[in-house]
Amino acid sequence: MLWYNIFQSIAAFKIYKICVTVNELEQLLDGWMYNGSWLNDKKHGCGILSKISKEDHTIHRYYIGQWVAGKKQGFGHNWFEDGSYYEGDFCRNKRHGYGRMWHCNGDYYEGAWKDDFYHGMGLLVKENGNKYEGQFIKGKKEGYGTFYHIITGQEQRGFWTNDWFINGTMSDADFRQSATRPTPYPIPELKVITDINNAQDTSETIYDNKKGESFSTEPFCKRASKRIVPNICVSINTCPCLNSVL
């Protein structure tokens, strides 16, 4: 009898020990190695598929789980060469059913799968903390769902097509005040009117408008009994009413 210590599982954090006989151990081409149950010369039942590195001869786990007629089917753990990890249901060697996926780029997905794609209801958490919760079709956001902008503290709620947000609402989330960079809503700067004459002209114009009287938006000037208001009439040539008087 041979005892093999299988690497620590990410999901269960336990050390697996499996008792096998020499006849149950198959060395495959290119370093692939299978250890488990067989039926009619095919992997069937519970088994472990590993690969021996040609460089340092270390054993790297690839799949631990259930097999049916030589294919991954049922619940299992799958490690990918790029460092990604999946645990969940399989059907005919594809992720199918419910499962969780830790991507090598930091993204995380939990939910329904079909033919190796996100498909159905699921939760996708991006590496930067943003997350989407809703419907997927063939790996893309499709249907009703909510996208949470964790950094700015906002949420998009509505309908999606081919990963694009097409109809819905954009609003502040409950966690906006705790966001890293919450969306700013600056208060407009208050300005004090220092020119009394300009302020008087403005108030008279508003008053006339409230009474419903018609008024022209063309340039105009006012004649004062003692002096001409600065910044209204620059010269005689530019003020038609003064020209008529003079």
From TrEMBL:
Chief subcellular location: cytoplasm
Any one Pfam family match given in the protein's UniProt record, by short name: MORN
Gene3D superfamilies given in the database record: Histone H3 K4-specific methyltransferase SET7/9 N-terminal domain
UniProt KW keywords: Cytoplasmic vesicle, Repeat
A single cellular component GO annotation: acrosomal vesicle
Localization per Swiss-Prot or TrEMBL: Cytoplasmic vesicle, Secretory vesicle, Acrosome
Matches recorded under InterPro entries: MORN, MORN3
Function: Assembles a suppression complex (suppresome) by tethering SIRT1 and MDM2 to regulate composite modifications of p53/TP53. Confers both deacetylation-mediated functional inactivation, by SIRT1, and ubiquitination-dependent degradation, by MDM2, of p53/TP53, promoting a proliferative and cell survival behaviors. May play a role in the regulation of spermatogenesis.
PANTHER family: MORN REPEAT-CONTAINING PROTEIN 3
Name of this chain's protein: MORN repeat-containing protein 3
